[in-house]
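Shipment paperwork, digital attachment
Item: protein structure file
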Amino acid sequence: MTKHEMVSCERCGARIECRANTYSRCQCNAVQLSAKEVEYIAEKYEGCLCASCLNALKSEHQLLAELN
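Attachment content:
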């Protein structure tokens, strides 16, 4: 039995276990984001995102920052 809520990644639809109440053990905690990256992602998404999508969006933000 799962202690945490199962949700779909807002970007890709993958099923992930949301551990917002135990953030230090949540899969998204593995992705280190700067304040600017968090702001960029928050402009596009409101819900949970899987670590894979967070990494992709981090790379996307970094690429856009290099182009500007």
